[in-house]
């Protein structure tokens, strides 16, 4: 007789929920180079996608110094900032490099001042997970519940996966921002450089377009012809400078 075994439905749903969360988070952060905007998207997605979570915040430190926060609800932003010093779930999670849970703040004793303020704002449970972004930026994602015991063991696993995935995505955001800044510097240099600058001026005159668009035209031509940008510029300048036959 064949006996079929099945995963419990709740566990199966937990896997699907987590996969949907990570997919949605990836989509939300994949196209931005603005780190602050990425944090805002992150806390919004986490708040809406993790069952049992009512609010979400993110605490950021850059090179060991406080750098800011993001909060899904501005009313609770103070819980993620540095006004409580090291005595908060976020800072404890960052310093200890481990996830911290308080399922019921009514019995919490680790962060007295922070806990009193959190309860006054309607928070009944908190889970803080450290997030490693790169060698300059670390942080913590903070999940808040408005009811005790809402942050179950399964939610803790989801939070751990969320923190790891968020770290990778935020590192990507910072990497794209650095590349964009470098590209802007290169563009500025090219705009002022000899024959490339002349070619850009020609294209601007011919097309009535701004310099960045003219530079992109040159780059597209260089890519299509598989020759260096400067050679494309030289050819263009030579062409327009050549006397027309009468």
Automatic annotation (TrEMBL):
Membrane spanning residue stretches: none
Gene3D superfamilies in UniProt: 3.30.450.40, Winged helix-like DNA-binding domain superfamily/Winged helix DNA-binding domain
Keyword terms: Transcription, Transcription regulation
Keyword Transcription: yes
Origin: domain of life: Bacteria
Ranges for domain ANTAR: 176-237
GO molecular function: RNA binding
Protein name (record): GAF domain-containing protein
